[in-house]
Structure formats: structure tokens, C-alpha cells
């Protein structure tokens, strides 16, 4: 888009953003996301809390049926981890006595769970009307706030009478019903059409709310009591309301802090479809007779049925069918909703890209999303129905079935806004009348089918019914769905926003401060990914592969060695926490046991196991410097990719050499460490050539792909070993690495100048914003003396030492801690040891974006940013490590809980603390003088000069009128 600024014109991004860290639409997305998360926390906290509120009864027939299936040979019985606190089938938490619990039968429990939905559907339509009259800010915000106040009263009314609780839950459902339709009214006013899929993904904050609520409530109940679960969720809602009240406004035209550029952009791109008058007459007859509306509602029905079935019934399903306790039920009921949010956000970005680049019509984008939601959900729900007593399959189908529901944000949910932006809230209200009914019909069906018959066969019927609903919705919407704006959406009355837009179009912005509020992009391409983004993905997945190859042995060794008698630590910890660790029912469950024969294992001592794990690092450190030198001479593409590929070949040979002799295996691990030591240092050469300084923090977060690789490795290896054998784990890692290497060969290049498919605009942007790089040749040697005597360099090295010590201590030893100290089996060891690396990756990426913003807007010096990051990575980690060393035998917080290991953690904390203090005092992020001792890169300078002489179409748009006049004068002078 070209706009006039003063006497000149500038080309700006289609979505302007100022120097502020977040635009007003970003802030709105975050608050809407958190609002829906809070809404679901208040809605479903009862689903899990009720497990701890009632007196436990004898386990259902399904548990006995599944446990009979799980029984294996007596030779393996001593390997069963039936004393795990995570999977103990006891429902009573240590802080609740039987006198504090309620003797409710299945009918009473159904009343408590289903009461929320009795009137929830009825307030959907009034919610849309109230939002049009009073504004979304009031309706959505007060809806959460009032429900939170009612949530605070639940513990009191529950102790008074069951029907008092039912009354409060009915009121909560009635008030909460207004929130979803109300939000559509604000979405139509704030969000342009080509951004709606991505914005509506904020509605999937409900998934994060569900994911957080289950494990959070399980933890709170375990530490305190079930009443605290309601108090804490309500308190979080009240805090959210404070932010919502002060930061959110019903439309951009009344926002007091929005930049004029962003306001103009929003009003321009929503003009003609949105009228903001609350007195606009609703065309009830046309709406009620609208076929596209009811087709969309039917399309939304199946997704809602499937999702609500999973959400409300997952705790009961895991508890009654698979016999899992409160902690495991909370964990596995919440995890799928994290995936749902991720799918929602990524798929919505993909859908917006399809629209923005005209790859697909709006109608087909919505149909594709609904097909993923309902059609894909139907297939996965059917798989769950026939998963029987296999908990691993049940978890897989439950997770993926919930995850694909995230595409609804780009499907029927967004389609309601497409049909009528002016009456979007009314449409969602009417649609909610239909789909909300599934909220209480689905639990009713489950109650009828499973009442006193908690068997696998009855739950199969539950999931088959959900499959039928999903399939019908997919077929109906795919055949007859549409996204065209309906004729009755238009209004002849003038719109205040149209008048505001006309004022903005006439006004000339002469204020230079507003110029700073526009993010000027030097290139604008229609590709889904720029070359730098493609490189980020390849580096990210390359680091995943690197860590999968590097650390797969950490978990596999648990299945390779003959298990020994439990250590004294295990006895010490379990004996001190019998109420929490001892199950009431012994269930032989394949998720909790190792069904691996001893004939495939090795009788290695602890010393030999230590040699096997440590051999990789004997030479790993020695090739780091070599990796940087090789990358400068031969290029990162060859070294980074080639090292990963060679490591794949080595890993394929591991099963053969390990059966030949232990020392042959050690030699192979030593070789593997030497090869893989060159990988990460080589990457910095490519980063320096491709990435401008203001983007490097975010790009370097790709190196944290290693954390995702670690997480995936532990989980995938555990599943592979369980269903196949430990050899297959190595083969799978190698195949995955080979596939990645093929993509790397085709898509990665050592510098932007060598890339055959990069746009000229992006190439110029990189070259102009990237500092020149010294060309490594015989005439330009590496300044070894300056480097080796550089104080800042060694300060950075010593600081990194502590962070590395802490990370590797937890990374390499956690599988052994869980298996041999806490007595956990291969599957749970893989799951729990891999889980922390997912939040590590998320934190790395978000903190990197924050650091780049600090640098880009001069909020902090480069040195200050680096010191802040090191403080978090070392000092804060040291605090947590100290807490870990003092956590005792509490399995909720400790990876290992024994006095002898306390010393290990204290040593780690000391390393972290010393490293952090060292860098905070003497560290610097400034470029060193010896970096530019020699001439600049001639290749880069020549390439940039060519681009300056041959401007692209995009850069010509960026030229100001004054610059064009200057060119004409120079041409005239040249002719003279």
C-alpha cells in the first residue's frame, strides 16, 4: 500500500505496525485468547474436581476387563511399576478425608456436570443482541467476571446441598452462553477479512484453558483440597477482567491509544461490510430463512458434538475404563487441548495465506477447514472407538481427534462472520442455539449408555455416535456450504466508521512521529515463506534430528540393560508417601510396564552404562572449533547437513556393533560425537550471512529445535520400544534424519547470493542490513592471537559453561532418575523426561522475539539484552536447581529426590550462579575490533552494488517523489 507522508510517498506493509511491541489488534488477540481460556477454566473445572469430591467406589467392569488383557507372563511381573503416584488408581487425595467427600451416585454426578449446559444454549442469541446494543467489551468482560464470582461460591453451596450447586452451575452456564456470540461482533469491527482466520484462532484459547485446567486442578487438589481449585480459577478470571476493562474497546474508532495508521488500515479493510449502529434493525425473517446460515450451523454441530464429548468425558473415560488416578487423568485430559491450539493457530495462518495469494476461494478455504475438523475428526474418533484396552492408542486418537478440531477457527466459526459481518453476533447466537444443545445431549447419551455399565463396548457406542455426527456435518457443509456475504447484510443507513475513514483519507499526515509508527518493509512477496523463514525451518528441524540422533540412547539404554532390584532411594521415597504412591487396585497396564524380554538385554554394570552414555562426549567437544573452520572453508550447507547425514549412517550401525562387543559400541559412539561436534558451530557462519542483527535472536531460536528433538525422542523411542524393540528406535531416527537431509540439500544455500530462487527484494534487504563478512582466504587469515587473548570471548565461554552444565545434567540423567530411582517404566519415563523440552522451545522463541524488539526499538543496548538473557538462563535456573535439590521425595516437583543427588544439583547450581555473575559483571555484546582487521567481503559488496544499479519493482515503489526528481536532475546534468 502506498500512502502520502508529507510531500512524499512511502510503500508500507498492508498491516502497519508501529514501534510498539504489540499493535492494538495484537493486544486484542491476546486478551480474547486469555478470555476464552478463563471461560473454559470456569466451565470445566468441575469435570476434574468431581473426581476428588466424591467417595470412590469399586472400579468399573471395564477396568477389570482391561487389566485382564494387560496381564503378561510372570517372568516380567517384577518390572511392573504399579507403585507410581502418577498412575495410582486412588481417587482420594491426601488432604481430603472421607467425611469431606460426597456420596453421590452416577445420577447425582450427571446433574452436577450437565447442569451447566441446561440453559447455556438458551443465552446464545441474547448474547449477540446484547453485544450489538451494549458492546462486546461489556458483555464478554462481565460474562467472565460474574461467572468467576459464582465460581467462588461453589464450595459453600456444595456443602449446603447438591441442588444449590446445580443452581449455581445453571446460572454459570446461562451467563457464559452470551460470550461466544458477543465476540463475533467485535471481530467484525476490528479484523479485516483476510486476517479473520488467524484472529478467530484466539477463540481456541478455550483449548489452552482446558489444557491448563485439568493438570492445574489436579495439582491444586493434590496439594490443598478440591475447594482451592474453584478459588484459584475464579481469582485468575478476576485478574483478567482488570486487564480487559482498561485495554479493550469496542471499535478502533473509539480506541484512545491506537495509531492513525492502524486505525485507517482497519477502517479501510472493513469498510462496506460493517455498520456499527446498535439501533440497526435486525432482518429476522431473512436470517431465519437463510439456508447458508443453517448449513453452517449443521456443519458446526458435528465439530461441537465431537469436541464436547472429548472434553467433558475424557476424565471419566480415563478414570473408569483405563483405571487412572487423578494426576494421570488430569495430564492426559489436558494435553490434547495444547495441540488443538497449535493446530488452530498454524492452520489459520495457512488459510489466510491461501486467501491472500488467491490460491483458493474463500468458500473453498472454509470447506477445507470444515473437512479437516469434521471429516478428520470422524476418522480419528472411530479409531478411538476401536482402540479397546490399548491406552497408547487411546491417547493418540484422543489427542489427534481433539487437535484437528482446531481448524474450526478457519471453518464454520469464521464463516459466520463471512456471511454477515453486520449481524455476525446474531448468527453465532442462532448457530449456538443449535450446537449448544449438544452440550447437554452428549453427556445425557453417555450417561444412558454407561450407567452401571462402564465397559469398553459401551464407550465404543459413545464414540461411534460422535463419529456419525461428525461425518454428517462434514458431508452437509462440503456439499452446500457457502461464504458469500448475504444480501440482507447491507444497510442504507450511514456508518460512523465510514465518516471517520473519509476524514482519515483527506487528512495528510505531516507528523514525523507517525512515520516512525509505520513498519516499512523492503520487500513484499506472495510466497507462503520467505527464504529466511524456509532456512529457519530447515535449521530447526535439523537441530531436532541432531538431538534425536545424539540423545536417543539416553532412553533406549533403559530397555537395553537387565533391570536390577530397586535402589534404596526408591524405597525411601515410597515409604514416606504411601498415601500418595500406593494404589488401591493393581492393574497390569502396558503403559506402565516393560514387556521386553531379557534375552535382548545386556548385563552391564552402572560403570559400563556410564561409559556408554559418556563416550559420545569424549570427542564431541574437540571438534567444535574445527566445525567453525570447516564451515568457513567449505560452507555450512556441506558441514551441517553432511555431519547429520553421517551421524544417521553411524546410528544405523549401532544395533550391529553393540551385539558384537561393548568396546566396538564405545568406538562408534566416540566417532559419532566427533562428527556431530561440528554441527552447531558451523551454523553460525550461515547465520551471519543470512540474518540481519535485529532478527538474529529470533532466528537463533531455531537452534532450540534440539529441545523439541529431545522431547520427541524420549516419547517416540518409548512407543517404538514398547511395540517393536530397541533396535527399531535407532533405525527410525536414522530414516528421519535421511529424509531431512534430502530437503536440506535442495532448499539450503550458504549465502543469499547463491540462492537461485530468492527474490531480488529479499536479497537486497539481507545485503543492506547484514554487516559485511570477512572473506576467509589465505590472504585474510583468522586473527588467532586476538581471539585467544580476547577477554569478552572467554567471559562468554565461561558463562555458557554453567548453562551447559545445568542443561546437560538434567538432559542426560533424567531418564535414569525416573527409571532406576523412582521406578518408572519406559513409557512414562519417555513422556515425563521429554515434556519439559516443549516449554523450553516455546520460551526460547518468545523470549527471542522480545529481545529482537528491545534491540529494534532501542529499548536496551545489545549488551544489556545479552545480560538479561544470561541472567534468566543461569541465575534463575540455579534457583530452580536449588529448589530441586531440596524438594525431598515430592514426585510432583522432583526428578530425583535423594540426599546423595542433592549434592549433584547443588554443584550444578554453583556452576550456573558463577557463570551468571561472571557475565553480568564483565560480559559484553559489542562487536570486537579484531572482527574487521581485514577487507570486507568483495562478493557481497559487488552483489549489493548490482542490486542498487538495478532496482526492483518493489524498491521503485519505495522511492520518494523527491528522490525521483533528484534522478531526473542528474540525468539532465549528464546530458549537458
TrEMBL record:
GO terms for biological process: monoatomic anion transport. Keywords: Membrane, Symport, Transmembrane, Transmembrane helix, Transport. One of its GO terms (cellular component) is membrane. It comes from the Eukaryota. Coiled coil: none annotated. GO terms for molecular function: symporter activity. It is found in: Membrane. PROSITE patterns: MFS. It is a multi-pass membrane protein. This is Similar to slc17a7: Vesicular glutamate transporter 1 (Xenopus tropicalis). It comes from Cotesia congregata (Parasitoid wasp).
Amino acid at each position: 500500500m502506498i500512502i502520502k507522508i508529507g510531500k512524499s510517498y512511502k510503500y508500507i506493509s498492508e498491516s502497519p505496525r508501529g514501534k510498539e511491541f504489540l499493535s492494538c489488534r495484537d493486544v486484542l488477540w491476546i486478551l480474547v485468547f486469555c478470555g476464552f481460556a478463563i471461560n473454559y477454566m470456569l466451565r470445566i473445572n468441575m469435570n476434574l474436581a468431581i473426581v476428588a469430591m466424591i467417595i470412590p467406589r469399586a472400579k468399573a467392569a471395564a477396568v477389570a476387563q482391561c487389566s485382564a488383557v494387560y496381564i503378561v507372563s510372570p517372568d516380567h511381573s517384577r518390572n511392573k511399576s504399579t507403585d507410581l503416584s502418577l498412575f495410582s488408581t486412588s481417587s482420594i487425595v491426601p488432604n481430603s478425608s472421607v467425611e469431606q467427600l460426597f456420596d453421590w451416585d452416577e445420577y447425582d454426578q450427571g446433574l452436577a456436570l450437565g447442569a451447566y449446559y441446561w440453559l447455556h444454549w438458551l443465552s446464545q442469541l441474547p448474547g449477540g443482541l446484547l453485544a450489538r446494543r451494549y458492546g462486546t467489551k461489556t458483555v464478554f468482560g462481565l460474562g467472565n467476571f460474574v461467572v468467576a464470582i459464582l465460581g467462588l461460591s461453589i464450595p459453600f453451596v456444595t456443602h449446603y446441598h447438591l441442588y444449590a450447586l446445580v443452581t449455581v452451575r445453571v446460572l454459570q452456564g446461562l451467563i457464559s452462553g452470551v460470550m461466544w456470540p458477543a465476540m463475533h461482533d467485535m471481530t467484525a469491527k476490528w479484523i479485516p477479512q483476510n486476517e479473520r482466520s488467524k484472529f478467530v484462532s484466539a477463540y481456541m484459547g478455550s483449548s489452552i484453558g482446558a489444557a491448563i485446567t485439568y493438570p492445574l486442578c489436579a495439582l491444586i487438589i493434590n496439594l490443598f483440597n478440591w475447594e482451592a481449585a474453584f478459588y484459584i480459577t475464579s481469582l485468575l478470571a478476576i485478574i483478567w477482567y482488570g486487564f480487559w476493562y482498561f485495554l479493550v474497546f469496542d471499535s478502533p474508532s473509539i480506541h484512545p491509544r491506537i495509531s492513525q495508521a492502524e486505525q485507517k488500515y482497519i477502517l479501510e479493510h472493513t469498510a462496506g461490510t460493517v455498520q456499527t449502529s446498535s439501533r440497526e434493525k435486525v432482518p429476522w425473517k431473512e436470517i431465519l430463512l437463510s439456508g447458508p446460515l443453517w448449513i453452517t450451523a449443521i456443519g458446526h454441530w458435528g465439530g461441537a458434538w465431537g469436541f464436547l464429548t472429548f472434553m467433558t468425558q475424557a476424565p471419566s473415560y480415563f478414570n473408569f475404563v483405563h483405571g487412572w488416578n487423578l494426576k494421570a487423568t488430569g495430564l492426559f485430559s489436558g494435553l490434547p487441548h495444547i495441540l488443538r491450539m497449535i493446530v488452530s493457530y498454524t492452520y489459520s495462518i495457512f488459510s489466510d495465506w491461501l486467501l491472500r495469494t488467491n490460491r483458493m476461494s474463500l468458500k473453498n478455504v472454509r470447506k477445507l477447514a470444515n473437512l479437516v475438523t469434521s471429516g478428520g475428526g470422524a476418522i480419528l474418533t472411530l479409531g478411538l472407538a476401536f482402540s479397546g484396552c490399548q491406552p497408547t492408542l487411546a491417547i493418540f486418537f484422543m489427542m489427534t481427534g481433539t487437535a484437528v478440531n482446531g481448524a474450526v477457527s478457519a471453518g464454520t466459526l469464521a464463516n459466520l462472520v463471512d456471511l454477515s459481518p453486520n449481524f455476525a453476533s446474531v448468527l453465532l447466537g442462532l448457530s449456538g442455539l443449535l450446537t449448544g444443545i449438544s452440550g447437554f445431549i452428549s453427556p445425557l447419551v453417555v450417561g444412558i449408555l454407561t450407567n452401571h455399565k462402564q465397559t469398553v463396548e459401551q464407550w465404543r457406542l459413545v464414540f461411534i455416535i460422535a463419529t456419525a455426527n461428525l461425518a454428517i456435518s462434514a458431508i452437509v457443509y462440503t456439499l452446500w456450504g457457502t461464504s458469500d456475504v448475504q444480501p440482507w447484510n447491507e444497510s442504507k443507513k450511514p456508518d460512523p466508521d465510514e465518516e471517520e475513514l473519509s476524514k482519515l483519507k483527506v487528512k495528510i499526515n505531516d507528523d514525523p512521529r507517525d512515520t516512525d509508527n509505520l513498519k516499512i518493509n523492503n520487500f513484499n512477496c506472495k510466497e507462503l515463506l520467505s527464504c529466511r523463514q524456509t532456512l529457519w525451518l530447515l535449521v530447526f528441524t535439523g537441530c531436532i534430528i541432531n538431538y534425536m540422533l545424539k540423545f536417543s540412547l539416553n532412553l533406549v539404554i533403559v530397555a537395553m540393560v537387565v533391570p536390577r532390584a530397586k535402589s534404596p532411594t526408591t524405597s525411601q521415597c515410597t515409604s514416606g508417601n504411601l498415601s500418595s504412591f500406593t494404589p488401591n487396585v493393581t492393574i497390569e497396564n502396558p503403559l506402565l510396564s516393560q514387556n521386553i524380554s531379557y534375552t535382548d538385554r545386556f548385563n552391564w554394570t552402572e560403570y559400563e552404562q556410564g561409559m556408554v552414555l559418556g563416550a559420545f562426549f569424549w570427542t564431541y567437544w574437540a571438534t567444535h572449533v574445527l566445525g567453525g573452520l570447516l564451515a568457513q572453508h567449505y560452507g555450512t550447507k556441506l558441514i551441517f547437513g553432511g555431519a547429520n547425514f553421517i551421524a544417521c549412517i553411524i546410528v544405523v550401525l549401532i544395533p550391529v556393533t553393540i551385539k558384537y562387543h561393548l568396546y566396538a559400541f564405545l568406538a562408534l559412539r566416540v566417532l559419532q560425537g566427533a562428527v556431530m561436534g561440528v554441527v552447531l558451530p558451523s551454523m553460525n557462519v550461515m547465520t551471519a550471512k543470512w540474518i540481519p542483527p535485529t532478527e538474529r535472536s529470533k532466528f537463533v531460536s531455531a537452534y532450540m529445535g534440539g529441545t523439541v528433538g529431545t522431547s520427541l525422542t524420549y516419547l517416540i523411542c518409548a512407543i517404538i520400544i514398547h511395540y517393536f524393540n530397541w533396535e527399531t528406535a535407532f533405525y527410525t531416527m536414522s530414516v528421519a534424519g535421511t529424509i531431512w537431509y534430502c530437503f536440506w540439500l535442495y532448499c539450503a544455500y550458504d549465502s543469499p547470493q547463491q540462492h537461485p530462487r530468492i527474490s531480488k527484494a529479499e536479497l537486497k534487504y539481507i545485503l543492506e542490513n547484514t554487516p559485511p563478512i570477512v572473506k576467509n582466504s589465505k590472504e585474510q587469515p583468522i586473527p588467532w592471537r586476538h581471539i585467544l587473548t580476547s577477554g569478552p570471548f572467554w567471559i562468554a565461554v565461561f558463562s555458557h559453561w554453567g548453562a551447559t552444565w545445568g542443561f546437560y545434567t538434567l538432559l542426560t540423567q533424567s531418564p535414569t532418575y525416573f527409571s532406576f530411582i523412582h521406578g518408572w517404566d519406559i513409557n512414562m519415563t519417555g513422556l515425563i523426561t521429554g515434556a519439559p523440552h516443549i516449554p523450553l522451545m516455546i520460551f526460547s522463541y518468545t523470549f527471542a522475539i522480545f529481545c529482537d524488539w528491545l534491540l529494534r526499538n532501542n529499548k536496551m543496548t545489545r549488551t544489556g539484552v545479552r545480560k538479561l538473557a544470561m541472567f534468566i538462563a543461569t541465575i534463575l535456573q540455579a534457583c530452580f536447581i536449588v529448589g530441586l535439590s531440596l524438594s525431598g521425595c515430592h514426585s510432583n516437583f522432583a526428578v530425583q529426590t535423594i540426599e546423595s543427588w542433592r549434592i549433584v544439583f547443588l554443584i550444578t547450581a554453583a556452576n550456573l550462579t558463577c557463570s551468571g555473575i561472571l557475565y553480568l559483571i564483565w560480559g559484553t555484546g559489542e562487536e570486537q575490533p579484531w572482527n574487521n582487521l581485514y577487507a570486507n567481503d568483495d562478493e557481497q559488496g559487488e552483489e549489493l552494488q548490482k542490486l542498487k544499479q538495478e532496482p526492483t519493482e518493489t524498491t521503485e515503489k519505495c522511492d520518494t517523489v523527491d528522490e525521483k526528481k533528484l534522478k531526473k536532475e542528474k540525468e539532465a546534468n549528464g546530458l549537458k
